[in-house]
Amino acid sequence: MDTHAFSHLTPIGFLQTFVLELMQLCEASVGSQAEDIIERIAQSASRFFEEAYREEHGLAGTLSQERYADLIIGLKNHIGGHFAPVSVDAGRIEVVSSRCPFGDGVRHSPELCRMTSSVFGGIAARNFGYARVELRERIALGHPRCSVVIHLEPAAALAHEGIDYRGQDKAAWRGPEAVTLQSRIDERLHALWCQAKPCRGDPEELDRPILIAESAAMKGVLGAVETLAPTPATVLIEGATGVGKELVARAIHAMSDRSGKPFIAVNCGAIPESLVESVLFGHEKGAFTGAIEVHRGYFERADGGTLFLDEIDALSPAVQVRLLRVLQEGELERVGGQRNLSLDVRIVAATNAGLAQAVQRGAFRQDLFYRINVVTLFIPRLSERQEDIPRLVDLILRRLSQRYRKPILGVTPQLMQQLLAHDWPGNVRELENTLERAVLFATAPWLDRVEFSSPTPAAPQPSAGDSRQNWLAQAERDYLDQELRRCRGDVGQLAGRLGISRRAAYMKLKKHSLNPSRYRPERTT
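User: That's the sequence. What structure does it adopt?
Assistant: C-alpha cells below.
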C-alpha cells in the first residue's frame, strides 16, 4: 500500500474531531436525522480524498479494485486506524482493522461507524456504479476488531445485510435547517482541507498559518488574533523562546486587511549593534564608509504591511528613540538622509523577557513601552498546553514525512505519553527538532521512541550573601506549590487567590519552574 500518497493530507484526527464537533451541534437529533448528517459529512469527505488520491497518482477514469482498496485503507490509516486488506476478489473487497480511527469514544457513539460505511460506499459507487457495505464486526459494539466487506455487484450482495450506495450521492435531508448545516459542513471541510493541501480557492487563504489551538490557553490566543487582526493596534507578544511568537504574528498579519502587503520579520537580537539603525531605517549613499548606494531598511520594505520585531528588548537606547519617533509620527529619516519618509507600517513586537521589568531596570524606555504595549498576548509554554501536543506532533510529522519522503504515519500510544510528560524547555522548536531526528533514523511508519536532548541546567551555587534571597525564593516557591495543590493546577484560580493577573501568575510559576499541569487531577496517580 502506498502510504506516502497520504503523507500530505489532513491531520490525524481531522475527521474524528470534525464529526464529533458536528455530533455536538446535532445533539437534539436522533436516529435517522443523525445518520443523515454523518452521511453527508462522509460523502463530502470522500470526494475530497478521492480527488487528492487521483491527483497524487495522475489517475483518470474508473479506479481498479486494487487502487480502490489502496485508497480506502490508506486514508483510514492516515486518520488513526489500523486497517489491512483480507481479500480483493472480483466484485468483493474485505478489510479488517484492529484500531478504530475514532478511538475508544466510538463505543459511546456507534453511529460514527456510518462514517466508514459512507466513505467506503461513496467512493465505490462513484467508480463502480454500485456498492453494498457490510459491517460484519465493529469495535463500537464490543467486537475485538472491525471487519468490513464491500460488495461491488448487486446480485452477489443480496444475501448480505448492509447499506446500498449507488452512482449518485444520497441527499436525504429532513427540515429546512439542514441546508444551512450542509453549507457549514462543506465550508469547514474545504477550509480544513486547504490547510493541508493547495486548493483552487483564494490564494491568500492558503498562506494563513496553521495555529494549533486545542488547549484553552491557545483557543484564547486564537480568539484574540481574530479580534485584533482587522484593527491597526500595535501588539506585543510575550512568551518563552520557541513557543511560536512569530507564527502568531504571521497569523495577525494574514487575517488583516494588510495580508496582501509584505510581512517582514526581524530578530533585533541578531543584528550587530553598529548596524541596527541602518538595517531598520535604511541609509543614504555615502552615509558612512562602505555605503555605496541607497539602502531601504526593513521599515520601508514593510510599508503598507506588518513589521515583526522579535526580541525588541535587545534594541539599544539610541535605536529605541528612533523607533519611538517612527511610531509617533509615522515617518522616518534614513541614516545620512535629509528628508522624512512617510510610512504606514503595523508593528507587532515580541519578547521572551518581561518588558515591564526591563522598564523598571531602566533598560527599556517607558514611553516606547506604552506605545508598543497597546495589547499584549501571552503565549504559554508547551508544557502548559499539553492538549496541543498531539495535533502539533501530527502536523510536524506530516511535514517531515513529505520533506524526507518517508511514510511516517504517527507515533505509538506509549511514545505519545512520553511526549505529553516531557517538560519541553525548548517548547515547540524543541519538539520539532526531536521529531525530526526520530524521522531521519526511522525504519518503521510508526515512531516508537525519540531521543530527548534538552538537559536540565545545573543550578549555580549561591554565595553567602545570597542566602537570605534564596530563603525568600524557596519560601515563595513552597507557597506557590501549596496554592497550586489547593487550586488543582487552575492558574486562573491561583491568580485570584494571589490577587495578581493571570500573566503575572504564569511568570511566577515560570520563575520557580512550577508546571501547573502536574497539579491537575488527570496528572495525579
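The chain has a mean pLDDT of 75.
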